[in-house]
Amino acid sequence: MGVLAPDLAAYTFTVASTFARVSPMSPAFVVLAALPEETEAILRCIEWKPLAPTSTVFGACYELDLGDPHDNVRRHGVLAQLAGTGRVSAAVSTVHAIHTWNPSLILIAGTAGGFQDRSVALGDVLVATKIVDYEAQRLDGDSTIRWADYEPEASLYALAKSIRLPATQGSNAQVRFGSILSGDKVLASKAAVEKFLGLRADVLGVEMEGAGVAFASAKSSVPCLMIRGIADYADDNKRNDSERWTKVACDSVARFVRALLERWADEAPAQTRAKR
């Protein structure tokens, strides 16, 4: 288990003490998204209603309802859009989400850059078996990355493996499982991708919030899983690919998220199904 920078860690968990549980609802899960397109895809897939943001760390919040005639408590949750991108914003937002709503599960949903040399395709869904934080580095004559790896709980990983992406017309998206790089930099260079692959052959893609969410979740012992859709190849054509594929990737992720949450809720122990 790795750590974020000491100053970030200290700030994140000091500020947590000032957060009050102000929400009257008791959501079982929280889905975090960084971009409006990622949020909108979830809202197209799951019934929702507006929820007033409890802090400026969120750009918008929504109450999610998977629908259940038996009022299974685990079928109700929150979607929170982060007010910013990157690990710091994600870590602080995750702490706030945990102290406000006390969820049993946190999902990170959105887009990522995929590594074409690892045979991922635009529009595919990546489920992180490891979130690999690459930001901590020693900068000398030959810089050294101090990798920090975060893995989901075995039971959560097994649940994700059991999910089949619901089909939709015109989509050939596949679900891939593997390691995903996480850092504060926008990767848009084939040369940079090749350098990372030379250092970590296991990684399939890269994104910017996962390490922050995973770090904060681990400190609070809340299970966390990251699900990303490939919107580009993190290379020199990133902007053009992203313009074409972001919506497709987000929609695929949203369908997977809904299917996973429904399975997770329905496999809940009997004692969690009682009262809201």
Low-confidence stretches: 10-24, 270-276
Please indicate the count of domains. 1
Shape: globular
At the fourth level of CATH, the homologous superfamily is: Nucleoside phosphorylase domain
Provide a count of the helices. Answer: 7
CATH architecture descriptor text: 3-Layer(aba) Sandwich
> How big a fraction of the residues is strand?
25-35%
- Global mean pLDDT: 89
**Element pattern in H and E:** HEHEEEHEEEEEHEHEHEH
Termini separation: 34 Å
Going by helix content, strand content and strand pairing, the class is alpha/beta
Q: Indicate the CATH topology.
A: Rossmann fold
Strands in their spatial order, largest beta sheet: 5-11-10-6-12
Features:
single chain, 276 residues, alpha/beta, Rossmann fold, 5-stranded mixed β-barrel, two-stranded antiparallel sheet, 12 strands, disordered C terminus
